[in-house]
């Protein structure tokens, strides 16, 4: 049986031209014309004043925190329902993550929980040094509300837009609402450089500082002079060549993933109570992965993933929130009220194959087996 993957790279055909150019001109070292052109193209596409291509999205988050001067003993608020790369950089700088619950509409950071956390922190005289919000699976968070709360408390906002390149709210790109935004070009994302990331900001001086830290914090003198510990976090000119070819087709990729999402929604209309991430008013999600919750919870979810696997179809559980991860069991977790929303979304949440090149026939197959799985599950439960 044919393998139907969750998400795989989808080349445009233009990548080879830029990569060949890099090889033919011997520009295979970090930096170079492809990096500069890719950064410029990302500036235009995102609408940010400044961009810095990095070796990964994780590195971009680490650089954002380091540039903001976050250090040992500081707190950083971070959405709990995310991939671990959002939180790990908080530990890299020696700070403590404080995890924030999601709201059930977009599945992203709950503004109510954030406000509650801010009030608690202000009372203790221990405001966070930064807040990290995520646009999960490409669905836009309530980022304007979140940015307003951060502004009120004068705390910088970092947008983890690793999964949401191309997602907008009132035409403005995710990643441009905070002090910093980051994108990822890992192999599974909507576009890829095989591995890489981008740090963006509307503050050119912050990006200059990040550039300095990303290149071993070298002082501007003839010999090698260092007064601080920096990193080696720049993107290679070969990777950036792939990125240039990919960025040319980003809008097509967004359209393809949105179409896949819409087909799933229509197909499961009759399988009641399935619940999708919602687009808040004025927003356009890139729908990197179609995610939904199943009425039967974790048992039904896991059984369905197993059944699909037997048909060679790759589906995955939603990200397991950071407050449920053994590695982060000691850190505070703040919800809006008694309900733990991100736990429920994890337990009931499933991601379905969403690769932009998935054919109509392949998706029809996925739909058929999902429906079959759900119906069988209902029958089993009725028999019990
Ligand atoms: C992929 C991802 C990252 C990290 O990006 P890499 O380029 O893989 O380092 C960060 N945050 C989220 C939410 C991601 O999905």
UniProtKB/TrEMBL annotation:
Sorted UniProt keywords: Aminotransferase, Pyridoxal phosphate, Transferase
Positions where N6-(pyridoxal phosphate)lysine occurs in the chain: 189
Active site, renumbered: 189
Pfam families: DegT_DnrJ_EryC1
UniProt GO MF annotations: pyridoxal phosphate binding; transaminase activity
Entry keyword annotation includes Transcription regulation: no
GO biological process terms on file: polysaccharide biosynthetic process
Cofactor annotation: pyridoxal 5'-phosphate
Entry's family note: Belongs to the DegT/DnrJ/EryC1 family.
Name listed for the protein in its UniProt record: DegT/DnrJ/EryC1/StrS aminotransferase
Taxonomic placement: Bacteria, Bacillati, Bacillota, Bacilli, Bacillales
